[in-house]
Amino acid sequence: MSEFDQHAATYASAVNDSIAFSGLKVDTFVRAKLHHLERILRENGVTPADRIVDVGCGVGTYERQLAASWPNITGIDVSQASINEARTNCPNVAFAQFDGRTMPFEDDSAAAAFAICVWHHVPVEQWPDFLGEIRRILRPGGVLAVFEHNPWNPLTRLAVERCVFDKDAVLLSMPKARRLLASAGLTVEKNQYILTVPAVTGIAGRIDSWLSPLPTGAQYLVVARKTLQ
């Protein structure tokens, strides 16, 4: 049984408890990552007919909004309880439980994939296989967006320490993520730190964008591509 099975019904409240010291709610962080993710999909020409895979979808937090523009999205997760919750939250979206090793898709079948704060839960010894599976399912030219916690931000570390389902977390820095993605045969095209300021629009959003080269953000984003063969 996945550790997340016991937290599926209380996922949002658990995250909110872990970040309560900030005065923010999980929705603030979700909206910011949706903003970046939707931009990435559009900039890379991902169409409504294209397959998108949410690797480690949890309870379907991102599917409800994304499915309106990209209906061919599928969320996968190792936690069956989370998948059940996701199906309740997003009844018109496809979800599938998998064993954490082999993703239930054919080779070269996805135009895009994303993994939002998932990598740090994968056992370290499985990191190469995890990235290799994502590369396998992406079509040549397919894009991968990875969002991860920034271990160089002390408030992020505090939130992770306080989160009941982050006890197994092994945080990795952006430079390390870039190296591992390259080692897996993916070409890193863009990276930035996000959420130094918890906003993506208005003056605060512009400030956060200006600060994106600095390792001050609560999280970071790396965009990589399966190079043409």
Task: Output the keywords.
229 residues; alpha/beta; 7-stranded mixed sheet; 8 helices; 36% helix; globular
Q: What is the overall number of helices?
A: 8
What is the global morphology? globular
- Unreliable sequence segments: none
Indicate the proportion of strand residues: 15-25%
Topology pattern, helix = H, strand = E? HHEHEHEEHEHHEHE
> What's the main sheet like?
7 strands, mixed
How is the largest sheet built, in terms of strand order? Answer: 3-2-1-4-5-7-6
Gyration radius (Cα, Å) is 16 Å
Class inferred from helices and paired strands: alpha/beta
Overall description:
With 229 residues, the protein is of the alpha/beta class. Helices cover 36% and strands 21% of the residues. It contains 8 helices and 7 strands; from the N terminus they run H-H-E-H-E-H-E-E-H-E-H-H-E-H-E. The chain has a 7-stranded mixed sheet with strand order 3-2-1-4-5-7-6, sandwiched between helices. The longest helix has 18 residues. The radius of gyration is 16 Å and the shape is globular. The mean pLDDT is 91.
